[in-house]
Design brief:
By secondary structure, this protein is an alpha/beta fold. The protein is 34% helix and 18% strand. It binds S-adenosyl-L-homocysteine and iron/sulfur cluster.
Length: 400
């Protein structure tokens, strides 16, 4: 799990890093520091039950909190994208995270059958600066790979939001609008759907999930890891033995098209990905989500919907798969767009009619480039061009 920053400074969000930082201290100090970190208190100066000397030493040796460079708001304040700078000089990287607020709905004195829902505050986090997977429809993919994030850099995207939500960083840091009514002032859900492929930074992702579920105290069900389908990583995720939600990005109903839309399919074709999905289902008892970006003229004909339905029926036990359809979000230099709403609905209906639970994702923060696949921090994307391999994939798709 060695990365630039960890080799310089121990990462207190890992058991090893904490032990290293507090090697000369009595064992209970580790619990004290871990408790502060879990509360989102990551400035040693605020860890009031530690001696002054220890606080000063930790302030020098602990990686600094990511700096909030910019907050962009959309959806009437319900979506906020935060640009963070992680790491120290020489290894500093810009990373984006998104906070999505969902106010409580309906009557929460809730009779049976009521559709009332408690409010949620979901944070979408990144595990890598950039991504090496090269999916041609994704802005992060076009930015290329910069570096792995550490465990601390990954989970601190959550604790930064927690502090901002609780107002402990002062009014205004979360943007100009106050918190809307009916939303919690703490983080309720975390989705690993930001920049990067979580299972290509596997040890960090596993440790981050453990931390969010353990010290930070999120229920496993409120944590979602989204992957392009890296099979060895899915097997490791199952071994965590926590019923977190696994989301697999499918995007095509056959290997031919998926080879172009998801280059990792050449290493892990559909049959193998579904084998891993079934293994995950059997190990955790959790239904698996399948994400499918709807790209007009590429993967959304009614025939393709029928093939997808057939694919899921063949590979997944009945009722064990959920499909999340994501209308394609604009990506710089990429010529593709989402189909019309009626075409999206027609596609969804084919799956629904086949008994497959399906939702069309209402994308958040499209106008501030905060929606799925739009995160690329402030990287210069080769003057707004697609990667050469992605251009090749798009050409092959166009000639089909
Ligand atoms: N690398 C992981 C997780 C991050 S991407 C993965 O790919 O699963 C989170 C989701 O956004 C994935 O389902 C991804 O396919 C989707 N996505 C990427 N680019 C998109 C775009 N331009 N429009 C809509 N969804 C996109
Ligand atoms: Fe990476 Fe996911 Fe984007 Fe593909 S869709 S390039 S795996 S972030």
């Amino acid at each position: 799990m060695a990365t630039h920053t960890e080799s310089v400074q121990p990462d207190p969000y890992t058991p090893d890093g904490l032990a290293q930082l507090l090697a000369d201290e009595p064992a209970y100090r580790r619990d004290q520091v871990a408790e502060w970190l879990a509360k989102g208190i990551d400035d040693p100066a605020e860890m009031t039950n530690l001696s002054k000397d220890l606080r000063a030493r930790l302030a020098e040796q602990m990686p600094a909190r990511p700096r909030v460079l910019k907050v962009s708001e959309s959806d009437g304040g319900l979506t906020r994208k935060v640009l963070l700078e992680c790491g120290t000089a020489g290894a500093a990287e810009a990373v984006e995270s998104v906070l999505m607020l969902y106010p409580a709905t309906g009557d929460r004195s809730a009779r049976a059958g009521s559709t009332a829902r408690a409010g949620r505050a979901t944070v979408c986090i990144s595990t890598q600066a950039g991504c090496a997977m090269g999916c041609p429809f994704c802005a992060t993919g076009q930015a290329g790979f910069r570096r792995q994030l550490t465990v601390g850099e990954t989970v601190r995207q959550v604790t930064v939001m927690q502090r901002l939500l609780a107002g402990s960083d002062g009014a205004g840091e979360l943007g100009s609008a106050g918190l809307p009514d009916g939303v919690p002032d703490y983080v309720t859900n975390v989705v690993f759907m930001g920049m990067g492929e979580p299972l290509a930074n596997l040890d960090v992702t596993l440790e981050a999930v453990r931390w969010l579920h353990g010290p930070f105290g999120l229920s496993a069900r409120s944590i979602t890891v989204s992957t392009i389908g890296l099979v060895p990583g899915i097997v490791k995720l199952a071994e965590l033995d926590l019923p977190i939600t696994l989301a697999i990005s499918l995007h095509a109903p056959d290997d031919d098209l998926r080879d172009d839309l998801v280059p990792a399919n050449r290493q892990h074709p559909l049959a193998e990905v579904f084998g891993a999905a079934r293994h995950y289902l059997q190990s955790t008892g959790r239904r698996v989500s399948f994400e499918y970006v709807m790209i007009d003229g590429v993967n959304t004909t009614l025939e393709q919907a029928a093939s997808l339905r057939q694919l899921l029926a063949t590979h997944m036990p009945s009722g064990s798969a959920h499909v999340n359809l994501i209308p394609m979000n604009p990506t710089p230099a990429v010529p593709w767009t989402a189909p019309s709403i009626s075409d999206q609905r027609a596609f969804a209906r084919v799956l629904d009619d086949g008994g497959i639970s399906t939702t069309i994702r209402a994308n958040r923060g499209n106008d501030i480039d905060a929606a799925c696949g739009q995160l690329y921090a402030n990287y210069q994307m080769a003057s707004g061009r697609m990667l050469p391999a992605a251009v090749g994939a798009a050409d092959r798709i166009a000639q089909r």
